[in-house]
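Appendix B, Record 12. Input sequence as logged:
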Amino acid sequence: KEVAEKYFELANKSDLDAIAELFTDTSTYRSQNTGTFTGRDEIIEMQKGFHSQYSSLNWKIDGFKEQDEGMLFDIVFERTTFDGEKFTSKVQEYIVVRDEKIEEVEIRNV
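Logged structural output:
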């Protein structure tokens, strides 16, 4: 759970270099909003593009449970555009961690 929590903490700071260290060349990232990405390089490129659209991003953990071989987080996701427009949505993030690295992330809209 600590690795996943660190991922959210780093995402809130947009610390993409540190986030990259949490993924491997075989990690997968799937989202209904952005598509599927495989490997650290693809995942970080996608995240760079996403983070660059907002002046601030905040993932707040609103719930947690173990599910199958991973963890399911209920997230309140707040973001602000460079024009000051604010958005809030709820998502679920299913995360599988192996050997202190994130193997899989799946974003589910709720």
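Helices lie at 2-12, 16-20, 40-51.
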